[in-house]
Write a structure and sequence with these properties.
Blueprint lengths: L8 H12 L6 H32 L7 H50 L2 H6 L2 H43 L1 H7 L2 H39 L1 H6 L3 H29 L1 H23 L6 H42 L21 E9 L5 E10 L4 E6 L5 H8 L7 E6 L2 E2 L5 H7 E4 L8 E2 H6 L7 H10 L3 H6 L7 E2 L8 H15 L3 E5 L7 H15 L3 E5 L11 E6 L2 E6 L1 H7 L2 H9 L6 H5 L1
Parallel strand pairs: 3-10, 3-11, 6-9, 9-10
Antiparallel strand pairs: 1-2, 1-4, 4-5, 7-8, 11-12
Main location: membrane
GO molecular function: ATP binding
Pfam family, one: ABC_tran
Length: 597
């Protein structure tokens, strides 16, 4: 279900003002574009007057003055040609402004996404975020390209038309002003209802993107478990809701846009013709004035029609802007860090002091976690699924903020270090490594310009990855597709190891880093890890206990608490939870009854 959201007139105005604030850096271009717009509008106002002069003063039987007609005709054609040229430059300038603004807006949104904390991504589908960065900003671009220029031009044109009408006939012009409140009423009603429908439509489009993104990422699971039919139905249901929202938009557009304005136009035309018809019974009237008035009336309603037609784009842009600014105003940002560049990690000593943590603020996933990892030591975290191992790493990497307890690095609060210092001195290798589109070399170097090709190759040799990399078609320049889909799990893991080694971190964090590597490769990796851990503080999550038997300290977690701690041999001697886990993994048949208990 989509949350029911309605935008009041005040909220819509706030969104508009905020969108217009993006025009400030482009004042010169905007002034130039509006100047061109003013000139083309003046041309539109002058043309009917020229025709009226021709009809009333020179269109007479048996009389043809060539010179005045030549001047009028030349002026008419000249204005049309100049208007066409100015219109071209005007459109280019407004497009230029729109592209500049959308470029900046997309950069702002993308930068904001990079600064958000992982907690935001836990609750927001990726497709919904993509929709805001792409579809919503595109809708905003349409507003700057067509809506604003149309409204400003229409404003100029309507003002000029009214002035010309008052010059031609004051009484009739006053009668025509009755139309203004009627038109404003139609606009207000349209804006009120269409904003709700467009918001619903945008939310449904966001859902469609989210479902599509989820389906593409999980295609292998969908096919293996035969979920195609269910996904098609879910996608179809959302698509149906999107269709229904679209039909509501079409109906209100069909009722309040062109048909309603045309009806008012016919009413105005009846007023004008009736006025001239009644007047003609008592006095003569000028045909040119009738032509000019009807022409102005037609030109009056054309910009009104344009404005009404653009109102739909305007409402889409306002709704899209509301969604984009909601993301930009999101307060679920990454945990704050100090900006002091002089505080640096030197030894890598890690201390957790009475740390408790909850993701939802209701249930603690970590309870009073206290331990110390001295420089150069390896601390391993073991425990059943959901025991809190990954949460400890998430807090150490500052993916989430904590409120109770403290984490110290080299005796200083982890909050006292800048984000760049933490990222530079801490290396993370996950169980399921992420590879970027590019080359193998790019994925190891991560576009660090100060890292040479030789350092990249040295890092690959260190983790025993050079053998399979050099067998690739282009070696280190081999293309990596999205998420490294053409590599095996073990190969992706080796590249991730090389990437971490190349960064030369002071603290090493391993989240079951050898889980996807075969036994033969694992032996080579364990040798490399032993070298890599020298001089580095290592925090390692392990499911296979055989990989952490040489750890300096093993912490056994259960339901968010440390229930046992010690070396491998000390924990086995305690014959507690660690002992049971070890027996289960090593086939201790003679102790099965003890394990069951």
């Amino acid at each position: 279900m989509v949350e029911k959201i309605e935008l009041s007139g005040r909220e819509q105005r706030k969104v508009l003002v905020r969108l217009l604030s993006y025009t400030k850096p482009h004042k010169r271009i905007i002034i130039w574009a509006f100047f061109l717009l003013l000139l083309t509008t003046i041309g539109d106002i002058v043309l009917p007057i020229l025709v009226a002069i021709f009809i009333d003063d020179y269109l007479q039987p048996g009389r043809l003055e060539f010179k005045p007609l030549l001047l009028l005709g030349s002026a008419y054609m000249g204005i049309q040609i100049v208007k066409a040229i100015l219109l071209f430059f005007q459109l280019v300038k407004f497009q230029e402004i729109a592209l500049y603004i959308i470029q900046q807006l997309r950069i702002d949104v993308f930068s904001k996404v990079q600064a958000l904390g992982l907690k935001y991504f836990d609750k927001t589908p990726a497709g919904s975020i993509v929709s805001r960065v792409t579809n919503d900003t595109e809708a905003i671009k349409d507003m700057f390209v067509t809506v604003i220029s149309t409204f400003i031009q229409s404003g100029f044109l309507l003002s000029g038309i009214f002035i010309a009408m008052f010059i031609l006939n004051v009484k009739l012009a006053i009668f025509c002003t009755i139309l203004i409140p009627i038109l404003l009423l139609v606009m207000v009603v349209y804006r009120k209802w269409s904003s709700q429908f467009y918001l619903d439509m945008r939310e449904r489009l966001s859902q469609l993107n989210a479902k599509l993104s989820e389906s593409l990422q999980g295609m292998s699971i969908i096919q293996v478990f035969r979920q195609e039919k269910r996904l098609r139905k879910e996608f179809g249901d959302i698509n149906e809701l999107h269709y229904n929202a679209g039909m509501k938009n079409i109906k209100i557009d069909g009722l309040l846009l062109r048909p309603a304005i045309d009806l008012i136009y016919i009413f105005a035309l009846i007023i004008v013709l009736s006025y001239f018809g009644i007047t003609s019974m008592h006095q003569s009237i000028q045909i040119g004035v009738i032509y000019a008035f009807i022409n102005y009336l037609d030109r009056f309603f054309e910009p009104v029609n344009q404005m009404m037609m653009r109102l739909s784009l305007y409402q889409q842009a306002i709704v899209a802007g509301h969604r984009v600014f909601k993301l930009l105003d999101e307060e679920e940002i990454a945990p704050a860090q100090s900006d002091d560049p002089h505080v640096s990690i030197t030894d890598g000593k890690i201390e957790f002091n009475n740390l408790s943590f909850s993701y939802d603020g209701k249930r603690d996933v970590l309870k009073n976690i206290t331990f110390t990892a001295n420089p150069g030591e390896t601390v391993a975290l073991v425990g059943h699924t959901g025991s809190g191992k990954s949460s400890i790493i998430n807090l150490l990497m500052r993916f989430y903020e904590f409120e109770r307890g403290e984490i110290f690095i080299d005796g200083k609060s982890i909050r006292d270090y800048s984000k760049s210092e933490l990222r530079k001195k801490m290396g993370l290798v996950l169980q399921d490594p992420f590879l970027f589109y590019g080359t193998v070399k790019d994925n190891i170097r991560l576009h660090q310009s100060n890292m040479t090709d030789e350092q990249v190759k040295e890092a690959a040799r260190f983790v025993q990855a050079q053998e399979f990399i050099e067998r690739l078609e282009d070696g280190y320049d081999h293309k990596v597709v999205e998420r490294g889909a053409t590599f095996s799990s073990g190969q992706r893991q080796l590249i991730a190891f090389a990437r971490t080694i190349a960064a030369n971190p002071k603290i090493l964090v391993l989240d079951e880093a050898t889980a996807n590597i075969d036994t033969e490769t694992e032996e080579a990796i364990q040798t490399a890890l032993a070298k890599m851990r020298k001089g580095r503080t290592t925090i390692a999550i392990a499911h296979r206990l055989s990989t952490i038997q040489d750890a300096d300290l093993i912490l056994v977690l259960h339901k968010g608490e440390i229930v046992e701690r010690g070396t491998h041999q000390e924990l086995l001697a305690q014959r507690g939870l660690y002992h049971k886990m070890f027996l289960l993994q090593n086939g201790g048949v003679e102790h099965l009854e003890d394990v069951a208990n």
